[in-house]
Amino acid sequence: MKSFVFIQSEAGVINKNSLEALCGIQKLSSRPSITAITFDEQSVETLSGYNIDRVLHLKNPLLQSYNPLAYVEAIQKIIQTEQPNLFAFGHTYEARDWVPRLSARLDIPFISDCTKIRFENNTIFTRHIYQGKIACDLTSSSETTILSIQSGSYRSDEVDSGSSATVENQEVDIVEDKRISQEDKFQESKGTVDLANSDLIVSIGRGIEKEENIPIAEELAQAIGAEIGSSRPVVDYGWVPHDRQIGSSGHIVSPKLYLAVGISGAVQHQVGMKGSEAIIAINKDKNAPIFEIADIGIVGDIFEIIPKLTAAIKEHKQKS
Amino acid sequence: MKVCVLVKSVIDKDSRFEIKEGLVHFDSYSDRTTNESDNYALEEALLIKESSDQDVEVVVACLGSEDSSQSIKDCLSKGADRAIHILDEKFNSLDALSISKVLKNALEEEKFDIILSGLQSDDIGNGQIGILLSEHLNMSHASLAMETELNGAEKIRVKRELEAGWFQWTTLSLPASITIQSGINKPRYASLRGIMMMKKKPIKVLSSSDIGIELNQATSLLEQSIPKKEKETKFFDGEADSFMDDLINSMANDLKVI
């Protein structure tokens, strides 16, 4: 079996999620041949130190910065000539933007956001549906199958190193297509809170129901001495400022305690907090995916539980 | 100008379900709702219509069973002009690539200038349809839009969300397919007048024979299951007073966080 892993990289900084995808492919029980493919010359040396068969660096000035149409054309040609069985990506925002287009161009399936791949006579792709509540095992009969690996599903520090990879630089022809043009990346005004360095976080989700209920969670945070964080919907509703959002589009945090209040724990949220040392979740739905990663799960009405928990914590702190 | 909004009706997040013989079964009383990010896509289309000096028609396209009709009616009540409902049992449980081919055949002749869709569905969550369709219909595309600016009849400028608080503006030549991130705007509620007007708006229903498509799907489902837990979770359930002492004890002595 022949596999390719696309390495998203900028000026020698390799995307962690791409390495997680590489790790997933390396761990397949019937190990395929592995080509790491990149557009970034500065990542070639690092890549050649991994336990893979080949590093393929594609060269064209149009691949220097991200453009979905140029990327699709370059990889389309490689897949057509090399015909790998698996072509893997990290499930990054960038991959989400251009890989579906590659799938349609080549008429080959793209199984997105996989949490696991394994080999049992055939490659089996696991992805989660219904916001992480249900796992789905899929197979593909296509000669080539494209897949992306969810962030955090494998560990980038478990990528096997090696020294037998060959390095190949290849010029690729691309016809410039000006229908999509990108401006420079920018960050909106930086907030005043430093959630990434907070030890204790109380995070508010949609279960808080309305803005007027936010103080209930704030009092709990105060009792613990925690910062307030939130899931995406609460920010979208305008109840909590954007700089407190935790998840793939906000902060990635790993505090000593993450206390999730009314957060169901969709994948996009878990990506931002699953590295926390301790996770406590309060939710009315016992099937909420947040409980899969929680150390303590409290099932019930947050409006009954939180005031009592706040009072009990205050009392405990007075005693000790 | 013609703007299409792809809308999906999904099972409510809190619906009960069980797994029987490797397949998920939802409680038959489960509520359905319009996919969250699709609501934002519809609102963005309506805002484009209202702020443009051109004549803009907003068309809702929905692939789904009869249960989807409430979502379609909601979109029409909020201000969409007409709807296309792609309805056929053969189209249940298709993979992303097959869904995009059905939509291509169903929508191609409309020659839309802009297609908007939510960035991903809350049920299956492939997050691919709007972009797959852009390739099939030879349109430009952008994903995770947090703002749009229509510049005349030729271009649209889109603010894309990147990871970790970064953004990027992208300019697309029309026709363009854009996937919309939740939070881009504040979706409206339907007015009473809107609900009255909805009743007169056309809904075109297309079946597989109208669309004329042979699907040969490469992916297939082996089984569905409850995800394996990554951690041992200590659960507290029932009256808060009954477990509060235990809970404080666990927080203080097991987790050592208070």
What can you see in these coordinates?
The complex is a heterodimer of chains A (320) and B (258). By secondary structure, chain A is α/β, with parallel strands linked by helices. Chain A has 2 domains: 2-171, 3-Layer(aba) Sandwich (Rossmann fold); 195-319, 3-Layer(aba) Sandwich (Rossmann fold), CATH 3.40.50.1220. Chain A has 8 helices and 17 strands. A 9-stranded mixed β-sheet of chain A has the order 9-8-7-10-6-1-4-5-11. In chain A, strands 14-13-15-16-17 form a 5-stranded parallel β-sheet. A two-stranded antiparallel sheet of chain A has the order 2-3. In chain A, β8 and β9 (134-140) form a beta hairpin. The N and C termini of chain A lie far apart (61 Å). In chain A, 53% of the residues are buried. The mean pLDDT of chain A is 93. Chain B is an alpha/beta fold and 258 residues long. Chain B has a single domain (2-211), classed as Rossmann fold. Chain B has helices at 36-51, 69-78, 96-107, 129-136, 192-198, 208-211, 240-254; strands at residues 2-6, 9-11, 17-20, 23-26, 32-34, 57-63, 82-86, 114-118, 140-151, 155-161, 166-173, 176-180, 203-206, 219-225, 234-237. In chain B, strands 11-10-9-12-8-1-6-7-13 form a 9-stranded mixed β-sheet, with helices on both faces. In chain B, α2 (69-78) packs across α5 and α3 (96-107) crosses α4 (129-136). Chain B is globular. The chains are: A alpha/beta (320), B alpha/beta (258).
